Amino acid sequence: MSTHVVGRVTELPPGERKIVLVENRSIGVFNVNGTYYALRNACPHQGAPLCKGRVTGMTLTAPPGEYKYGREGEILRCPWHGWEFDLTNGKSIYDPHKCLVKTYDVTVEQGTSAAAVAVEAPEEEEVRIDTYPVTVEDGWIILHV
């Protein structure tokens, strides 16, 4: 599994997304209420750029005659045909057992630089590192592919 720096936490506030090209794959990284999720940017229906779709909520189960809306910011709607997917797990709202989008792990690394996160030195090599005092104001968003 390889890791890729997406950007700083402050660059992707809640409700926002960033589409990145990683290892020849277009991937959308979303901040859903402070938790980061990543999906392949291709709708399984006809290959639309899924991650450019509208992020919304959905109607939830409620007693007859009542309407309950929830999960705001967790549902991604395909821009071409309106197919809806759960951002938290990539599953289709309509058919979650058969239709899904590839998901990727995302972590937030605190107190490191992008260079330190993105590059790991082999254990056999002796590595000389110069250190300097650094103030870290936010973490890095890391995509694991």
Automatic annotation (TrEMBL):
Identify the domain of life.
Bacteria
The molecular function terms in GO held by this entry are: 2 iron, 2 sulfur cluster binding; metal ion binding; monooxygenase activity; oxidoreductase activity, acting on paired donors, with incorporation or reduction of molecular oxygen
Cross-referenced Pfam families, in alphabetical order? Answer: Rieske
CDD domains attached to this UniProt entry: Rieske
Rieske domain span: 4-115
| Gene3D superfamilies recorded | Rieske [2Fe-2S] iron-sulphur domain
**Signal peptide feature range:** none
- Keyword entries, A-Z: 2Fe-2S, Iron, Iron-sulfur, Metal-binding
Carries keyword Metal-binding? yes
What is this protein identified as? Rieske (2Fe-2S) protein
Organism of derivation: Paenibacillus cremeus
